[in-house]
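2024-03-11 09:14:02 INFO worker-7 job=invfold-0412 stage=load source=structure_tokens
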């Protein structure tokens, strides 16, 4: 099975203020800015499941998880709760940025910024753990093992 993912959404020329670091952290990994694009991780996963059909949902031998189970668990347990909780909270804070205040300065003044950063780190660790199981279910090496770690 070969799956071709769409080109990364975003980048290039943007209009409006530069995104804050927290906004980038909440949206960059998931592809979910304020209005979810066609290429969000949720949309791409649904498209893969539709195109591949029931083959990716077949139970694995030896009790291993299949792609469908892992993909839905990652989305519904790893990503969706974080976005459901923090996306509205961050959007609400951003909406009250005083005229003349930079996006970054306003973000740094947010009383809940450290809480969001802590939850982002927890989510990052959880999603990193899922990559090994997902690689095993797909019969490929864990791609995170190929990324050099910074010194």
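2024-03-11 09:14:09 INFO worker-7 stage=emit residues=151
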């Amino acid at each position: 099975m070969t799956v071709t993912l769409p080109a990364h959404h975003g980048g290039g020329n943007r209009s409006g203020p530069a995104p804050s670091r927290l906004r980038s952290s909440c949206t960059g990994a998931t592809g979910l800015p304020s209005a979810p694009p066609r290429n969000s991780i949720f949309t791409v996963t649904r498209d893969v499941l539709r195109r591949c059909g029931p083959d990716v949902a077949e139970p694995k031998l030896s009790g291993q998880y299949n792609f469908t189970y892992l993909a839905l668990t990652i989305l519904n347990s790893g990503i969706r709760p974080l976005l459901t909780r923090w996306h509205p909270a961050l959007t609400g804070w951003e909406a009250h940025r005083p005229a003349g205040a930079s996006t970054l300065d306003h973000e740094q003044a947010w009383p809940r910024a450290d809480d969001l950063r802590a939850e982002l780190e927890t989510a990052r660790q959880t999603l990193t753990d899922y990559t090994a199981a997902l690689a095993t279910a797909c019969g490929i090496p864990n791609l995170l093992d190929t990324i050099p770690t910074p010194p």
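2024-03-11 09:14:09 INFO worker-7 stage=report msg="The radius of gyration is 18 Å."
2024-03-11 09:14:10 INFO worker-7 job finished
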